Amino acid sequence: QELVEEFGAGSVQAGESLTLSCLVSGLPVNEYAMGWYRQAPGQEREGVSCLSWNGHTTGAADSVKGRFIISRDTGKNMIYLQMNSLKVEDTAMYYCAADLTICSPISPMRADEAKYWGQGTQVTVSS
Fold first, then answer.
1. Which residues are CB-neighbours of 43 under 8 A, at least 6 positions away?
2. What pLDDT digit, counting tens, does each position of 41-88 carry?
3. Rounded to 5 degrees, what angle do the CA atoms 122, 125, 127 make?
4. Among 23, 26, 19, 51, which Cα is nearest to 119's?
5. For strand 68-73 and strand 58-60, is the pairing parallel, antiparallel, or unpaired?
6. What percent of the chain has pLDDT over 90?
7. Which of 73, 38, 31 is nearest to 52 (CA)?
8. How far apart are CA 122 and CA 28, in angstroms?
9. How far is residue 93 from each of residues 8, 56, 76, 104, 120, measured CA to CA in Å?
10. Which pLDDT band holds residue 99 (cuts at 50, 70, 90)?
């Protein structure tokens, strides 16, 4: 059975860093595209960053390019999101998603392209 679980909720100051982790069960992370999404109160869920099944391609929202890094550990079957230079506007519930239809460096991620979702983990950035 497929299961996606996020770890790493936290409250930080603007400019600090935080790393989120995602444990995936039932789906080898080196066979499926994976991604991170986020949703702030009153806003739609948006794609943050993705990683292709072979690890050769990544995608990222313009708002996080140069600050967030997605990676994986195939031995642990985990996905990570390293978030640097955090901003107040990065405050949101962050979701790990598995089995994305596509991960493209030029096309925005869509929430309806992911099949399996975690419950989410809260990231709060204060000024």
1. 92
2. 999 999 999 999 999 999 999 999 999 999 999 999 999 999 999 999
3. 160
4. 23
5. unpaired
6. 90
7. 31
8. 25
9. 11, 27, 24, 23, 6
10. very high
